Structure formats: C-alpha cells, structure tokens
C-alpha cells in the first residue's frame, strides 16, 4: 500500500497547486483594487506557499545552452553518448574546437535527477568537456531489464569511462563516492587505458564510521529486514516498471526534509515574507530551488539496500572487505590517478573525514598527488552548487585536472 499512497498524494497535490495559485491571484486582484487589509496579502502569500508542497516525478531540464569559454561565449547542446537501462551518458557539446579535458560527473542516485547538479555542470563547462551520469527514474525501467545495485553502479561507471576513452577525469558527488573509487581501483589494477587521470570526491561516505551521522547510526542499529519492509516499495501497475522494488523518491524527500527540518522551515518562513512584501526576485529564486528539490525519482531497491548494508552498515570498502562481482576491490592499486577530496566543515550529511578516508585506502599513491580541501562553513549542498563551489572549489578541480594532464 505504500507506493499507491505516495502516488495518490502526488496526484492530489498536483491538482491542488493550480487552484491555490488561482485563489491567491484573486486575493491579489482584490487587494489591488483597494487599500486592502494586511491579512489579505498574508492569505494570498500562504496560498502561494502551496506551490512548494509535495513532490513530482517530472524531470527538470538542465537548460544549459551557452558557456563562456576562453574563446568567448559558445553554444551548448546535449548529446546522448550511450544509453543503458538505468541511465544515459550525457555529454554537453560546446561549439568550439577546443572543448577542454573530458570530465565524467557522477551524480548521486539518491532520489533526485541529475539536474540537481546543474550548478556543478555550469561551473565546469567553460574549461571542460562535461559528461554526466543521467540516471533513470527506476519506476520507468521494465522489470525484465534486471537489477541495479552497487556492483551494477560500479560497472556502469567503468563502461561510461570506456565510452569516453583514455584521458578522462572523474568527479563524484556524495552517494556514488564508493562506487567511483571502486571503479578507479578496478581499472587501475587491470591497467585499463580508460582509467581516470584524476578523481575528485565531493563529500562521499567512503568511511561512514568517522563522525557517524544520524542516518549512519540508524543503518547500524536497525535490523536489515526493517529497511526492506519499511523503506522499500513495489511499483504498482500503470507504470513501465510495475513490479520493480524501489526506494520511493517521495519517501527519500520526506526523510531529507525531516533530517534538516529547521532549515526548510526557515526557508518557507523567508518565502512567506518574500511573497507578503512583494519581493518577486527572491520568491522566484526560492521557487526554482524547491521545484528542483520536489522533482524526485525512485531509486532501485538493490542500490538503496546496498548503500545501507554495504556502505553505511558494513563499511566494506573502508575495512578492505569490498568485493565487486566476487573480486576484491583494492584501492591501493591506484598509482597514477590524482585524487582531490572536498569536504565542508558544516556538512551534517557527510561530515569531514568520511571522504578523506580515501587517502588511507589509496596507499600506492605518492603523497604529492593527494589534494584535500575543507571548505569553511560549507554545508553539503554548498560543496557542489552556489558561490563556494563556483568561486573556490571548482577552480581547485580545474587545477588538479590541468596538473594531471
């Protein structure tokens, strides 16, 4: 019953939002025709807040059509390099003969579309040929196309690096840090010519035992069966992926909001002030952000449960116990892939130290190749979007890439 309830709520709110918007418009019109009491403006603003309520499975566009390069402003278009059941390798093609070093940005597969990294891609575009793992909403993947767990995520990263060819660089944001590091290790041990020249890990749970979060503690404390029963649902008839087990995007979104409830409440109160005071620019910026957050996708149950049990509960990679399709993953085999680890000292989702643990695992790397950056005052999202990312972190990524050839 879990999934139909989420879907019914989504459908109901989708019908409610236009009605609330129309009612708010009528109140605004009444207010415009006379002095209008302040409560009228506040009532209209409260109705407009309903536009930020609930979730949708509509994928937002990247909307990146221009990039300012060293050769000037150039046109950008999206191109699908390779398609797979659970995602596409998306390339942002720039209208220039010198697009820059190729970079594969591995987006989190944790409930939001890859467009969540729009700011990440936009900042990289001027100097790099950017590719993105454009993951597919699991409820649209037919059941006969198989499973997608941690092993499959590692395999997909390797396949897409091979599709890009030798000379590419790898950047993983948050959830796929373990998969990206594992892919680099396996490719290094095999002498794969497409192994990444550099590997940037942005706030990923390489060793979640360091400064464990509330979610990490729950993963260790609750029995495995609890997650399969309470956190996973079956896609009902009516969707292409009917019968597939998933972690519903709506449930993931609800968990994220509850984990940082004070921040979201403060944001909604600020939006109420924006709407009441008529600050259209601030209200539009808030709405753009929450439109992105409300756009959710279902995650394959295998990947979600592997993340809980193999990453957070078992810390397999950190303990040297991780296997990929029966083969031991050996980060110490990495010898010529330059790593950059980025963390934020205000990151509650992935505290400092968890990603830096990658250096302890990559024992075969010379110390001179390792770069570690802790962004002062930065929370999780600020590490890959916003001013700190664009002005301080992205230039570090560029430096590492340039130094790695």
UniProtKB/TrEMBL annotation:
Gene name in the database record: phaZ
InterPro entries in the record: AB_hydrolase_fold, PHA/PHB_synthase, PHB_depo_C, PHB_depoly_PhaZ
SUPFAM superfamilies: alpha/beta-Hydrolases
Name the UniProt record assigns to this protein: Polyhydroxyalkanoate depolymerase
Domain PHB de-polymerase C-terminal: 203-402
Alphabetized Gene3D superfamilies for the sequence: alpha/beta hydrolase (3.40.50.1820)
Taxonomy of the source species: Bacteria, Pseudomonadati, Pseudomonadota, Alphaproteobacteria, Acetobacterales
